[in-house]
């Protein structure tokens, strides 16, 4: 298991930028096009100086091609030379720790020292929400959970606030979405019948044990992951709140990725919980945090806003239970008739997307970095046109490097 970069940076340099890619499928296009676009974008990212290139894990989404991170990571690593490539994140609720370690150990054997293994609790959390939601449909294979997810039960603040220039919107509640029969079916299909997902902390500890070659069963029997044991992968934990993921990352001294782009309402509590729980480890002597943001950059603010128009419609499909649709064109987005409830459904995500000229977006990213204390920023950009997405990352990289800190 390798060690993340030191948090010490020369004063004259801004924090590093990295990329999170969902392999979006544009409307009128197909999965093959989306995957080829991801590989092409990774090559550009390497040329532009981005530190890492992460791919997400999403299932049952007509507009997202990244359903198998390990497969896509292997393809991207083979198409690039030195940029770090990894997962943001593998959903441990759907796989066993040893299977994940073997997959990433195999990739690391061919691309040693370049692979990041980001782990997320989202698969387990989704099953909990479905299992405990009022009126949730019962399916024969639906996973059982010991407790409901906090998001389905906690009171939802209704007011936005601004913290030192950073917008913190009201939290989005998944309680209504959890009643969707479609979500229940998907949760069931992603696990074997009767399977029980262990506690996330236990799963993370198993991943670490298999990577370090120290795994023992409760009876004391050793097992070794080959490939995987002694792999040079960098282990990360991703989280959207100050709950278990942040605490597990901190207590085990692992780097942590907080999601402003998915859960902007809870990003500050996530990084605070991580830092409060942090204990030095072999991997890290002090906390290391990366914070994500949705970004669209163009030559001027008006052009960027036009390119970003489809984002709200895309988020609406996800939040309404339809799932990520093929990413619309700006014209398709313009044709949608928005109700007030539609706008409320997506407001937190739309209001926290950074769309503008290089100068506009760099300034907003500086605010995000300052307020969260991020050691690194993870940028995700989706546009209908692939060339526009490449150009957005190009403009951002140039402006970020040229601007330096303030």
Give an overview of the whole structure.
Mean pLDDT is 90; it is low at 6-12 and 135-157. The longest helix has 18 residues, at 31-48. The strands form two sheets. This protein has an eight-stranded parallel beta barrel, surrounded by eight helices. A two-stranded antiparallel sheet has the order 6-7. It is globular and about 60 Å long. Helix 1 (31-48) crosses helix 2, helix 1 (31-48) runs parallel beside helix 15 and helix 2 (69-79) packs parallel to helix 3 (97-110). The protein has 15 helices and twelve strands. It is of the alpha/beta class and 406 residues long. 41% of the residues lie in helices and 13% in strands. Strand 8, helix 8 (244-251) and strand 9 (256-259) form a beta-alpha-beta unit.
Set out the fold topology.
Elements: E1 17-21, H1 31-48, E2 52-55, H2 69-79, E3 84-87, E4 90-91, H3 97-110, E5 115-120, H4 122-132, H5 150-153, E6 161-163, E7 166-168, H6 181-189, H7 200-212, E8 234-239, H8 244-251, E9 256-259, H9 267-277, E10 289-297, H10 301-308, H11 310-319, H12 330-335, H13 340-351, E11 354-356, H14 358-372, E12 376-380, H15 386-403
Parallel strand pairs: 1-2, 1-12, 2-3, 3-5, 4-5, 5-8, 8-9, 9-10, 10-11, 10-12
Antiparallel strand pairs: 6-7
Helix pairs in contact: 1-2, 1-15, 2-3, 3-7, 4-6, 8-9, 11-13, 14-15
- Which structural category do the helix and sheet elements fall into? alpha/beta
Number of DSSP E strands: 12
Helix count equals 15
Largest sheet: 8 strands, parallel, barrel
Spans of at least 5 consecutive residues with low confidence: 6-12, 135-157
| C-alpha geometry | globular
* Overall pLDDT level: 90
The helix fraction, in percent, is 40-55%
Order of helices and strands: EHEHEEHEHHEEHHEHEHEHHHHEHEH
Beta-strand portion reads 5-15%
């Amino acid at each position: 298991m390798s060690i993340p970069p030191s948090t010490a940076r020369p004063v004259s340099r801004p924090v590093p930028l990295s990329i999170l890619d969902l392999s979006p499928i544009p409307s009128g296009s197909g999965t093959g096009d989306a995957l080829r676009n991801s590989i092409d974008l990774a090559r550009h990212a390497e040329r532009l100086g981005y530190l890492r290139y992460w791919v997400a894990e999403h299932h049952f989404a007509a507009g997202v091609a990244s359903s198998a991170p390990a497969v896509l990571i292997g393809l991207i690593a083979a198409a690039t030379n030195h940029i770090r490539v990894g997962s943001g994140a593998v959903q441990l609720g759907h796989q066993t720790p040893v299977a994940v370690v073997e997959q990433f150990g195999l990739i690391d054997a061919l691309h040693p020292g370049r692979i990041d293994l980001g782990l997320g609790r989202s698969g387990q959390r989704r099953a909990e929400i479905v299992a405990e939601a009022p009126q949730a449909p019962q399916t024969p294979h639906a996973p059982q959970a010991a407790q409901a997810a906090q998001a389905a039960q906690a009171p939802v603040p209704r007011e936005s606030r601004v913290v030192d220039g950073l917008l913190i919107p009201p939290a989005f509640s998944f309680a209504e979405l959890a009643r969707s029969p479609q979500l229940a079916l998907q949760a069931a299909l992603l696990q074997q019948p009767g399977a029980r997902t262990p506690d996330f902390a236990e799963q993370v500890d198993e991943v670490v044990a298999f990577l370090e070659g120290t795994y023992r069963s409760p009876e004391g029997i050793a097992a070794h992951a080959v490939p995987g044991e002694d792999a040079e992968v960098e282990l990360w934990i991703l989280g959207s709140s100050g709950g278990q993921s942040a605490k597990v990352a901190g207590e085990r001294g692992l780097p942590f990725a907080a999601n402003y782009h998915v859960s902007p309402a809870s990003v500050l509590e996530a990084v605070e919980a991580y830092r409060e729980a942090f204990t030095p480890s072999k991997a890290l002597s002090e906390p290391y945090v990366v914070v994500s943001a949705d970004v669209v950059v163009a030559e001027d603010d008006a052009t960027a806003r036009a390119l970003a128009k489809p984002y709200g419609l895309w988020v609406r499909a996800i939040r309404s239970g339809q799932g990520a649709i093929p990413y619309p064109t700006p014209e398709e987005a313009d044709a949608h008739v928005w109700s007030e409830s539609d706008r409320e459904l997506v407001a937190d995500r739309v209001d926290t997307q950074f769309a503008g000229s290089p100068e506009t977006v760099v300034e907003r990213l500086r605010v995000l970095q300052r307020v969260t204390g991020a050691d690194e920023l993870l940028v995700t950009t989706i546009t209908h046109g692939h060339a526009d997405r490449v150009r957005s990352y190009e403009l951002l990289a140039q402006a970020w490097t040229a601007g330096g800190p303030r």
